[in-house]
């Protein structure tokens, strides 16, 4: 255990989060997502896991150490429901609330069509699989910056 770090963030996940640069994206996915095959195509090249927790809990842990990118309008993406792109299932509403709390303001969670989401996922830095069993518990987050200390 490390003081001040969410215990859900294992060493492999912390390594990847630290290695990511500004604008790099990570995938947080549910148990139905083709996580391993897509993860092999990412920059990191292998699958990371935060098991036995919901997507919302995993994202809450990640956002406790990683800021979202304020330079783009789509720093937080969600997979759209097939055939109903404007429907926002409960898992996505929960994640929206987590993001808003972490960022201290209302933050847009942008919908992306399923196959376009897969393509964006392949171009991401890494994939983190969760224990989320509800459908459409798949998200992409872009890493932001931490401003220097005031002098």
Biggest sheet strand line-up: 2-5-1-6-3-4
SSE sequence, one letter per element: HEHEHEHEHEE
Low-confidence stretches: none
Quick one: overall form? globular
Quick structural summary:
The protein is an alpha/beta fold and 151 residues long.
Question: How would you describe this protein?
Answer:
There is one protein chain. With 151 residues, the protein is an alpha/beta fold. The chain has helices at residues 11-19, 35-39, 55-63, 90-103, 114-122; strands at residues 25-29, 47-50, 76-79, 110-112, 126-130, 139-142. α3 runs parallel beside α4. The protein is globular. The termini are far apart.
List keywords for this structure.
5 helices; six-stranded mixed β-sheet; single chain; 151 residues; RbsD-like fold; globular; alpha/beta; 6 strands
Per-chain topology:
Elements: H1 11-19, E1 25-29, H2 35-39, E2 47-50, H3 55-63, E3 76-79, H4 90-103, E4 110-112, H5 114-122, E5 126-130, E6 139-142
Parallel strand pairs: 1-5, 2-5, 3-4
Antiparallel strand pairs: 1-6, 3-6
Helix pairs in contact: 3-4
């Amino acid at each position: 255990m490390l003081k001040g770090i969410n215990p859900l963030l294992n060493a492999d996940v912390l390594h990847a989060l630290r290695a990511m640069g500004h604008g790099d994206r990570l995938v947080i996915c549910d148990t139905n997502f083709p996580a391993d095959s897509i993860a092999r195509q990412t920059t990191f090249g292998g699958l990371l896991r935060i098991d036995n927790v919901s997507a919302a809990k995993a994202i809450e842990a990640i956002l406790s150490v990683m800021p979202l990118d304020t330079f783009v309008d789509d720093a937080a993406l969600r997979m759209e429901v097939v055939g109903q792109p404007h429907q926002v299932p409960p898992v996505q509403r929960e994640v929206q609330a987590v993001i808003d709390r972490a960022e201290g303001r209302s933050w847009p969670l942008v919908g992306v069509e399923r196959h376009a989401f897969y393509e964006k996922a392949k171009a991401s830095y890494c994939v983190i699989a969760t224990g989320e069993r509800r459908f459409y518990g798949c998200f992409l987050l872009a890493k932001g910056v931490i401003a220097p200390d005031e002098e």
